[in-house]
Hints:
With 190 residues, this protein is of the alpha+beta class.
Amino acid sequence: xxxxxxxxxxxxxxxxxxxxxxxxxxxxxxxxxxxxxxxxxxxxxxxxxxxxxxxxxxxxxxxxxxxxxxxxxxxxxxxxxxxxxxxxxxxxxxxxxxxxxxxxxxxxxxxxxxxxxxxxxxxxxxxxxxxxxxxxxxxxxxxxxxxxxxxxxxxxxxxxxxxxxxxxxxxxxxxxxxxxxxxxxxxxxx
Length: 190
């Protein structure tokens, strides 16, 4: 299930959005969108594309067994998330990861999707904030259709700028944008 949250669009939210959209923000190149997680995926159905990333808080297991601060901008991102969680009456026990992702348009490839994946191998929730109006549906597993070890990616959200969604930490993927860069903040939490 995908739930859309209300975006309070506070002053701090505007600062974070401007920072991420600015020419001086540090982005880091990743040559593929996901690591091999043991799920069989047909290459014709998905694309393990390169993208730019900025890890505010690295996920447990990447460097340490706990989330690790990784950015001088973590405090701003954390304050914005606190405002969003409070505005939507969501109690959070722990944030595992905060990461900004930038994906560039891929019109010559047609509509492709990222490789289906889970962000962690343990229970968690995902929150996505869309900072641009680039499209690129987020497609999420419908757990009510899960059979044995197979999964069904059948729930989707067609994002608009400033949308915020949450979903359980299940298999998911997203379409690549066709015309504009897709700028998203990915947050995992319990």
